Amino acid sequence: MLKIDGIVTFVTVAEAGSISEAARRLRLSKSVVSERLSEMEKALGATLLHRTTRKLTLTEDGAAFLQRATRIAQEVREAAADLAERRGTLMGPLRIAAPVTFGRMHLGPALYPFLAEHPEIELTLDLDDRRVDAASDGYDAIIRHGLIADSRLVAWKLARSRRLLVASPDYLGRHGTPASLADLEDHRGIFYTNRGVADWRFQGPDGAVAIRGKLALGVNNGDVLHDAAIAGLGIALLPAFIAGPSVREGRLVEIDVGYRPEPEFIFLAHPEGRNPSAKLRAIADHLKKAFGDPPYWELEQFQ
Length: 303
Known about the structure:
transcription regulation, alpha/beta, 14 strands, single chain, five-stranded mixed beta sheet, Arc Repressor Mutant, subunit A, HTH-type transcriptional regulator TtuA, D-Maltodextrin-Binding Protein, domain 2
């Protein structure tokens, strides 16, 4: 007889790609995960996974079974969430990925009171600046800054995000302050490499305008991007939620070139086709209220 915990374990192993990672996500020992997989294969009379010392791969039977097993596991999770909601309780595991700098500065502080209010939610928050695949990497949702390009995701807007073109007083003293988009082309830029293109994008009367400066530094982390701008390496286009405090303190200067940077947003997105749980909806509602409209980090810039 197939057991629900065995099906959930198999799906988690397939998504994680290893028994060790699946055990971490399930909060079980590796031996328990291996035992459940063996029981599943014995009950089905089929080998679901090829095991080597380096990796796990699905067999043909395993790939066929995974499609339905995934739906079963999701239905079980949703059923448990529905029952909990009926009792007025938000509970169970939830896995979310978010950018490092936003997570440290704003997401974490916004989540702490929510988690204290709902102690039965088991949230795993992975802070990672790479563009994770929400579905295949096993996330219930991802939080991102910018635009959601993945058509397999359903995005909920949490807050708007204004970006600031900034540089240190030292850099501007040495190289001059650009007053137009054309001036920017002669300046050194610090760019966020996860966007894929080293340019600054602005709102023009006829649409988006992209200006490419000279690359001083490309980096995939907001904290380092901010610190490099303060160190005087070049000009950076930073979200107000990162640069605001340094602009107020005078460590960075906002530059006006006559055009505003393209507006962006903070999104929470979940894989298409999945019915989002009550606790995920509750977190999204809480974050919208915590961030505000306009978000508090934009109001603070002018205080």
